[in-house]
Amino acid sequence: MNFRWIGLLFALLMILTIAPQTAHAGTPTISDIAWSYDGTLLATVGYSIIVYDRFLIPLIEYDEATSGIHFSSSLSWHPTEPQFVTDRFDRGYLDFPTSERFIIYDARLTDVFVEAYYTEEELQALGLRLNSLTWVDDDTIYVDTYFPTTYRLSAETLQIVDELATPAITEDQRVTHIQFYDLNDHLYVAYASVPDYRSYRNGENTHPTLRVMDIISGEMTDTAFPENTVIGNLSYLGGHFAVEIRSSVATLNYLALVDVQTNTISCRFDLNAMTGGLSDMSWRFDNRYLAYISLGGQGSNQNWVLTVVDAESCESAMTLSGDESLYQIAWHPDGTVIAASTWGGELQLIDVSMLLESGE
User: Fold this and answer.
1) What is the pLDDT of residue 22?
2) Residue 244: which of 309, 163, 157, 189 has the closest Cα?
3) In angstroms, how far is the first alpha carbon of the chain from the final one?
4) What pairs with residue 183 in β-bridges?
């Protein structure tokens, strides 16, 4: 027997064994990342579900990637406990889940803490294709879907308690982004609504709208954006929404900061050089700075750009760029670092402590 070939085969086997999982070329290995409430833990979900410490040392891997069929799309930490909720589904035709589980993991344990299973028939009846999860308090987790419908889950059982109506702003629009937030002891939900395809096809002059609704009173306020644009991304913290506006007209690509108290745009940042749009956004704890990832350049010269903007002065505070394709970011609660994941599943910490050290 040729021992040289045996050695080569053994080396190849080892390479395949330790190679990172990239089960679907068109899907990021990590779909969402988030810090725990106190910043001691970072959770990542996607093909695998992993908890890391403050320095990105892996502590627990709850569900190891195997065939690449199982996938998680969103996670949300408990506001005051080391627990997080995520989804886990099997991909079906056109990526529609053939089954779905909602799972709560406790980072102090190595197994599932709470779990609820939904069959394909139940998912289709409910229109349950997850967009994002929001853990609001001890009792309530909100699930919003792409259809769009928002469900309230019991945090104790992960069973659906009731449904929150999410109507479009007008008949010719559809909801694309939903976000919950708490302000002055009131729970609000924000809908980003865009013109439907019929409006584009008919050449009608339509515009996207950001609607904020008080869940208790039902009171609503709307912020309208320019005609023939769409809302590409949405992020909230401390009284401000960051809204990415995209358009086929180059001069209308920008990032708007909306003050929810006055319903006005307080800052506007030009995104015309960012040809790939924004992949993610994250606020610093004090609502002073917003970080976002974008793709700049043309053709083979494209590279990722991490930009931090100042919400008070409406100016850019820092910019970093590189060759790696960053996909998700999460600003640490102490404001000194930003955790970032690449499309292929690598994690890194980006030092932004200079923003604090400069007294800003």
Assistant:
1) 33
2) 309
3) 69
4) 186
Give the tokens for residue 318: 């820092």
Burial class (CB in 10 A: 0-12, 13-18, 19+), 115: middle
Task: Work out the pLDDT band at 80, boundaries 50, 70, 90.
Answer: very high
Q: Which residues contact 284 (CB under 8 A, 6 or more apart)?
A: 290, 291, 331, 335, 355
The C-alpha atoms of residue 194 and residue 198 are separated, in whole angstroms, by 12
Task: Give the tokens for residue 303.
Answer: 């590279």
34 with 330: CB under 8 angstroms? yes
Alpha-carbon gap, residue 280 to 235, rounded angstroms: 9
Q: Which amino acid is at 293?
A: I
Neighbouring residues of 65: CB distance < 8 A, sequence distance ≥ 6: 21, 23, 29, 46, 47, 48
Separation between Cα atoms, residue 320 and residue 327, nearest integer Å: 14
Choose among 120, 17, 42, 3: nearest CA to 331.
42
Task: Give the tens place of pLDDT for each residue, 156-190.
Answer: 999 989 887 655 555 556 666 777 777 777 777 78
Q: Cβ atoms within 10 A of the Cβ of 176, count?
A: 18
The phi, psi pair for 165, rounded to 5°, reads -65, 135
Written as one letter, the residue type at 281 is M
SS3 6: helix
- pTM (whole model) above 0.90: no
- What is the rounded (10 degree) CA torsion for 124, 129, 135, 138? 10
DSSP alpha helix (H) spans, the chain: 3-18, 120-126, 197-201, 354-357
Residue 122, SS3?
helix
